[in-house]
Amino acid sequence: MPRWRMYLEYNAVNVLVAEMGWLNYDRIRRLRVALGRTAAEKKGEPRATFRGYSCRCNKGYDGNPYLTAGCQDIKECDRKEEHGCFGDCEELPGTFRCGCPKGTKGNPNVRNDCVMPVVNTGNRHLRLIIGLSVASGPDDIAERMLISLEELEKATNNFDQARKLGGGGHGTVFKGILSDLHVVAIKKSKINHKNIEREIGEFINEVAILPQINHKHIVKLHGCCLEAEIPLLAYQFVSNGTLSDHLHTEAPRSLSWKDRLRIASEISKALAYLHSAISVPIIHRDIKPSNILLDDALVAKVSDFGASRYIPDQIQTPTAVQGTMGYLDPMYYYTRRLTESSDVYSFGVLLVELLTRKRPSLCMSSEGDCIVTQFVELHDDGNQAKILDPQVMEEGGSEVEDVATLAVSCMKLIAGERPTMRQVEIVLEALQSTQGVCPG
Q: Looking at CB atoms within 10 Å, which of 168, 226, 228, 231 has the fewest?
């Protein structure tokens, strides 16, 4: 017997379609079959409801399940990052497959986690390079620099997250205690396969340069491990963060002016040593507050020699630009010719940051002039007080003007007009003496 029924259906865009008429149960069953199997081409899921029948596309498909060929495969790989894939993406019926690019390992669902493993042959090559790089030192220095993976795992409790000191795009740093009871900071690099050559080069730089350096204001490298897929470096542990951490705190007051002047002097000593006191001079190439570590007594130690370069025979050879924008010598940027004066320029910017507590990337005018330009202009006009940190104005004396003048001379556009780091060191030592402080 016919019964009055209302048949409700919802299409893929949630538009309500109401159909009223005389339907018997058999016709309803046939309609459900047609909608579920024919219109959705077996890609719909029939779903019974109290008042009627609805159909939806299977997982991985989208469209109108009430139309022939209405459910279409979603192309996840077209927007793979929205679907949590940061590696190679392969479309599959109703789904997709995500994997690391060929030759890399890691988790493709985590950004930048697919890395190029340093295979054993590469580690043997690194061993050779390390041996050659430290040939001028004691015969056993290359072997003494090597630390087993087992010891580093033991030192960090298998790289326990509780031992994590920090991290970023280039890797993670863990605190550990070696068997000789040295407290170390172990850098576990994250090598991006797109920059593999540069990052391996930076690792080799650190291992080649730091063992030859012995200076109280330069961080020491205790050793490296070549047994892991990605090489590990173990540095002297410096406990009190970076100069950047202390300068750019939320608190209204930061390091005292006396500490800032002393820290500047200590950094200048380290750079003067690198440029002129060792047999083959070294250019650091990335001087900035975040690469200056401070210990519990706020003593400065220069770190991160990954971008550093030897300068044998004072030859100025063109090189790929490396460094941090804001601290980068503009002449080096445009000519690609690296000299010691490039470090002098970066040190001048660091002095500006000590004087102002402002990052060099910060722009202060509608014309887009940034801190360095503003600082030089205000200094030349005799109005530098407008940009100085109020704490510096309060605590400093006449030596503040002298440090500002020194910073401006370090940042001269023409490299030949800048002082050497040895000259900078002498000026800062003299300024410390006027404060009754014995230079460190």
A: 168
Say yes or no to pLDDT of 12 above 90.
Answer: no
Q: Are 101 and 152 part of one and the same domain?
A: no
Alpha-carbon distance of 7 to 4, in angstroms, equals 10
| Structural tokens at position 238 | 């410096």
Q: Which of 185, 269, 188 is nearest to 225 (CA)?
A: 188
Same domain, yes or no, for 282 and 413? Answer: yes
40-85 pLDDT, tens digit each:
444 445 554 455 667 889 888 988 888 888 899 999 999 999 889 9
- 362 with 387, same domain? yes
Q: How many residues does the chain have?
A: 440
Between CA 60 and CA 43 the distance in angstroms is 10
For Cα atoms 430, 292, 306, give the angle at the middle one, nearest 5 degrees. 125
Instruction: List all residues 6 or more positions away from 317 whose beta carbon is below 8 Å from its beta carbon.
Output: 337, 338
Give the pLDDT of residue 381: 93
Are 28 and 143 within one domain?
no
CATH number of the domain encompassing residue 273: 1.10.510.10
Co-location of 99 and 126 in the same domain: no
Domain that holds residue 328: 243-434
- Whole-number Cα distances in Å, 199 to 72, 75, 171, 190: 44, 35, 11, 9
Q: What is residue 30's predicted lDDT score, i.e. its pLDDT?
A: 53
Residue 440 in domain:
no
Encoded amino acid at 284, one letter: H
DSSP 244-269: HHHHT-SSS--S-HHHHHHHHHHHHH
Is 381 among the residues known to form the active site?
Answer: no
- Domain membership of residue 430 (yes or no) is yes
Check whether residue 339 and residue 200 sit in a common domain: no
- For 134, 339, 388, 426, the CA distances from 352, given in Å and listed in that order, are 36, 21, 9, 18
Q: How many domains does the chain have?
A: 4
**Helices assigned H by DSSP within 210-339:** 243-247, 257-276, 330-335
In the set 73, 286, 304, 329, the catalytic residue is: 286
- For residue 332, the Cα-to-chain-centroid distance in whole angstroms is 22
